[in-house]
Design a protein that fits this description.
alpha+beta; three-stranded antiparallel sheet; globular; NUDIX_hydrolase_dom; NUDIX hydrolase; NUDIX_hydrolase-like_dom_sf; hydrolase activity
């Protein structure tokens, strides 16, 4: 396979190979498993198993001291306590991702933000799951008055902290921080700061083809 040198920007494109059969052997509370029979380019067929997911939002909340609001909680599938940024599922199909992100920041950290922008959009594991995540940058942080949201399960043991962005970036590159949204969010913010700046990020209501929403 020849390697082509490309000097222009590249981007992902929509494409859908023909599916001749589809079944859902498992449906859980929020996610499921689907098996599709897909027609390959040579005309043969192959089965593809993947997890179906409603989509998620995450928030890189950056304060005036360039500290990021992070959470520490136990994640059973990987048997570790991970440092993460606030995140949550899109519970309702077509839900506005900005409102979902604002809800997660409030529920998990009891914080609100005045300035919201889209930091980046990612597929977490496109080889085996259709989960799409929109990561927002939130600034102009302030504590929310009133009672805190009632937490349960893993969140009962959750720790909240504010850590300098540069310190988190070093932790990512040293292999000490592993949460997908934290890694992508922190490195994206560092890239934005080193490039065109945070003001050049997309607006909070930018289109999201992976999970279309209503304003």
């Amino acid at each position: 396979m020849a390697h082509e040198s490309v000097d222009e920007p590249i981007k992902d494109t929509a494409e859908e190979w023909r599916v001749t059969a589809s079944e859902t052997p498992f449906t859980g509370n929020k996610t499921g498993v689907r098996t599709d029979t897909v027609v390959m380019p040579d005309g043969s067929t192959a089965k593809r198993d993947y997890q179906t997911h409603p989509g998620s939002v995450a928030v890189l909340a950056l304060d005036e001291q360039d500290r990021v609001l992070v959470l520490n909680q136990y994640r059973h599938p990987v048997r570790q306590r991970l440092w993460e940024i606030p995140a949550g599922l899109l519970d309702v199909p077509g839900e506005n991702p900005l409102r979902a992100a604002q809800r997660e920041l409030y529920e998990e950290a009891h914080v609100k933000a005045e300035d919201w922008r889209v930091l980046t959009d990612v597929y977490t594991t496109p080889g085996g799951c259709d989960e799409a995540v929109r990561i927002f940058l939130a600034r102009g942080l302030s504590d929310v008055e009133g009672e805190r949201f009632a937490v349960e399960h893993e969140e009962l043991d959750m720790e909240v902290a504010r850590i300098p962005l540069a310190l988190l970036a070093r932790g990512v590159l040293k292999g000490e921080l592993h949460n997908n949204c934290l890694v992508v969010g922190v490195l994206s913010a560092m890239a934005a700061l080193a490039g065109d700046g945070l003001e050049a990020l997309r607006p909070a209501d930018a289109p999201w083809p992976a999970r279309p929403f209503e304003a």
